[in-house]
Amino acid sequence: MSGDIIFEMKGITKVFPGIKALDGVSFSARAGEVHALVGENGAGKSTLMKVLSGVYQAEEGDIFLRGQKVRFQHPLESLAQGVSVIYQEFSLLPDRTVAQNIFLGREPTRSWGLLDTEKMRRETQDVLALFGDRHRFGPETLVSDLDVAQQQMVEIAKALSLNAQVIVMDEPTAALNDTECDLLFQLVDDLRGQGRSIVYITHRMREIRRLADRVTVIKDGKVAAAFDHVPETGRIVEAMVGRDIGHFYPEPATPEEIGDAVLTVRGGGNDRLFDIDLELRAGQITGFAGVQGAGRTALALALFGAEPFETGTVTVDGKSVSLTSPRSAAKAGIAMLPGDRKAEGLMLMQSVRDNGMISARAFSGTLGAPDKTPITTLDQMDALFDAFDLRAANYEVEIQSLSGGNQQKAIVARWLSLAPKVLIFVEPTRGIDVNTKAGIYAQMRKLAQQGAAVMAISSDLPEVLGISDRVLVMSDGNIVAEFGHGASETEVMHAATEAHLELEAS
Amino acid sequence: MNIPRPKNLAALAPFLLLLAAIAVYVSVAIATGQTQYLTAENLLGLLGRSIALGITAIGQTFAILIASIDLSVANLISVSAVLASSIMSGDPSMMLPAIAAVLAVGVVVGLINGLVITQFEVNPLIATLGMALILQGLLSATFNNFAGEVPEEFQVFAYGQVGGISISLIFLIALTVAAWVFLRFTRAGSNIYSVGGNPDASKLAGMRTTRVVIMAHVICSVCATIAGLYLASRLRSGAPWIGRDGVYDLESIAVVVIGGTALSGGRGGVWGTLMGVMIFSLIDSIFNIAGVDAFAKQILRGVIIVAAVAVYAVRSRRIEA
Which candidate, B78, B59, B192, B228, places its Cα nearest to that of B138? Predict the structure, then answer.
């Protein structure tokens, strides 16, 4: 049923400072097909699509649209040529109607520049009709009244109203439940039936099997495999994985290093987590794997009291604790290093020292000297910075002038001043270059060896496998599988992505 | 004057601005042949004319440092002046009860502002504007003219002198020093900078951020009530319009910002604010000596405030880049 080639990208190379994000990638899509673009986070899928739409300009390579060579300098140019990209983050205005959103920035006008609302309504109606009767909302509905799946339909409708022939969907099911997913799949089928070409970015195997006509796997900025059909799952996963991990990661813990259970959760739950039973041991690094939205971050936030458990019990060192706020969690000996350092970890305009001392100050009386708290003094903090080899011109400079790795070290030092028993690392190496990563892994190992229970959450699966003594896999707010050190990416990925299938089969 | 920890050029900007203002003042005085304005006494006198603004602005600095703002200070000044003079009613023995009552009102107003902002998550602009309107309503319902009078003993606050320097000026400097010590040498002070710098990160570091916000608002409101006491002392009685007529809400915000404290919080300090007050008085004096008419004066003041803030904005962009 596939037709002519609509667009073709040949030998695309895109370089960002320090890394080659894409290296000679070729990719194409035919009319009336769904081409699945697969790869791990950071493999280069989104970058490739941003090159296609003109958000980025490639250093090398050519793009042909219907046989014509094109070079988009701006997404508006590709939109005009019928290429629409629907990103994970929707670009809808919540307080405006569906019709107003669809015609955003190109509203039809009548004489005197007055808006032609009637035309907007009519044309929106026409586009929505393409969905059959599945949409259950009208042109005048406010976007904020729609659920996530419906908002996605509005995004798709926007693409259709521009008469897009190429529609790129970037992990469209990330925020959808099963029923909503089915609805989306039907829509994608319809779009294919209309002869449009769909590029479907995902890392979920069942979606590939359900939808795709062709599969291209990207890994480390290169095409790892291109299939003209949908191969068996194992071959796709194999192509996604299979990288040299090497001695990048520190040695795992020896049995003697692993101590008693420090933190125990029994039946922990809230609106994103269900019946969590968990034990974290001293000296052990426990990694958490799972697809986006599986509940790994929710678990970290629950343990740190930021989005507390509503049910279940938590004990630290055998004593029952109530984790209702970050402060209470910190008091119980739990520390969290947030994934979004800028927003959640740092006072950017304050000095490295102030950023390090903040927790020690927060847990000391308010009227004492800020540089000599009972918990730690400035000299001791400086010594901690030195011990971590924190590189800064001096410790009085604003922390925003430091590299991501050094900022991370300052936050680690902040928590170490409180001598925590449990350290939760969320995305410990996000935005940190490859060379610094090894240093951070070594640091995490050292903390474990000093007796802390370390919990590591990362969307970088090889990283989770490389640093962890034990890997727990989460899906839909549950812990669904456990592996020891040395688990293969394939088995973990299967556990993380196949949970749905097993449920369906049973 | 000791500028606390000038971490970069931004901390020096208000000082440079002050020097520039002094230079313009001197040259205008010389150019117009009015050299009698150039004594040190006269320069100190400039600050003396802005005591109420200075006290209010020191408090406002705390609110702005935690990335909040307080629009209720002007009406709170009126409330405290009226309250003080009617409780005192010329009776020296009522001075202490009056002062205690007025300060208590400050604490309560600050607590309410802080609680509304932290517990109901109302935007500070709206929360304190609401408080301003409520205070205004209470005033209008109770007073329509000068109420009560302060005893002569209390007028010492505004008119007294020690060694040739007015007591109120000494008080303002002492208040600034106290505020500086608090911000610079106590954990509560560093908490204020942390919360202003990034409230989410502060909370995730284990800090009780709501307490910090409430504390800053209490300090801000108490400062405003002290300014009200000063005005009652100076005017010998309190009137329900003195806060509003002085535009202490907007002017206190303006001098804090001119003094280099970031409206987004987390950066700045009280010495900058004091310089901001001096810059403001200098601008006024320059216009007076130069004989600029009142309307043009108002326009020029507006232009200077916006220009100063624009200069800061350009500079901090360059630092970030």
Answer: B78
d(CA B11, CA A432): 31
Compute how many other C-beta atoms are within 10 angstroms of the C-beta atom of residue B18: 21
Q: Say if CB A199 and CB A33 are below 8 A apart.
A: no
**pTM exceeds cut of 0.90:** no
A306 to chain B: closest CA residue: B204
Q: Which of A347, A377, A426 to mutate to test the interface with B (most CBs of B within 10 A)?
A: A347
- φ/ψ of residue A290, rounded to 5: 155, 160
At A383, phi and psi to the nearest 5? -65, -40
Residues in chain A within 8 Å Cβ distance of B189: 370
pLDDT tens track, chain B, 321 positions: 333 444 455 667 888 888 988 899 889 888 888 888 777 777 777 777 899 999 999 999 999 999 999 999 999 999 999 999 999 999 999 999 999 999 999 999 999 999 999 999 999 999 999 999 999 999 989 888 888 889 999 999 999 999 888 899 999 999 999 999 999 999 999 999 999 999 999 999 999 999 999 999 999 999 999 999 999 999 999 999 999 988 999 999 999 999 989 888 998 999 999 999 999 888 888 888 888 888 888 888 888 888 877 877 665 554 443
List, edge to edge, every strand of the sheet that includes A285-289. Answer: A334-337, A422-426, A453-457, A285-289, A470-475, A478-484
Determine, for residues B191 and A346 on separate chains, whether the beta-carbon distance falls below 8 Å: no
| CA closest to B10 among chain A residues | A349
Give the integer Cα–Cα distance in Å for B157 and B234.
8
Using CB atoms and an 8 Å cut-off, which of residues 330-389 of chain A contact chain B?
A: 330-331, 336, 338, 343-351, 354, 357-359, 361-370, 373
- The H or E element spanning position A167 is strand A166-170
Taking the C-alpha atoms of residue A236 and residue A215, their distance in angstroms, rounded to an integer, is 8
Interface residues from chain B to A (CB-CB < 8 Å): 5, 7-8, 185-191, 193-194, 197-198, 200-208, 262, 266-267, 320
Question: Minimal Cα distance from A362: which residue of B?
Answer: B207
Complex ipTM above 0.95? Answer: no
Strand partners, A313: A266
